[in-house]
Write a structure and sequence with these properties.
Elements (H helix, E strand, L loop, with lengths): L7 H22 L5 E2 L1 H8 L3 H9 L5 E3 L2 E5 H10 L2
Antiparallel strand pairs: 1-3, 2-3
Length: about 80
């Protein structure tokens, strides 16, 4: 069994590729819901909560509403598309 090492740069490329696929998939399928909470958005993007938290830390647009983040889906899609 051979051990494969993935560099941080390669991880960034993999993440960027997966996000691009997710955005394309989202744009193809569309959604009727404009505002989502963290769980809904993670499911919508096809990622886990830890991955979503990393995107939030990187500046994903959000609104704090009654101690909970809410996400405006068109702004999230635009932000993800512009991160290429």
């Amino acid at each position: 069994m051979e051990l494969q090492v993935i560099t941080p740069e390669e991880i960034q490329v993999i993440i960027a590729d997966e996000l691009e696929k997710a955005v394309k998939d989202i744009n193809t399928k569309g959604t009727t819901k404009q505002w989502m909470n963290k769980t809904e958005l993670a499911n919508y993007l096809g990622i886990g909560r830890p991955g979503l938290n990393k995107l939030i830390e990187k500046g994903m647009p959000k609104v704090m509403f009654e101690k909970t983040y809410k996400f405006y889906v068109p702004d999230v899609n635009k932000w993800l598309t512009n991160r290429k």
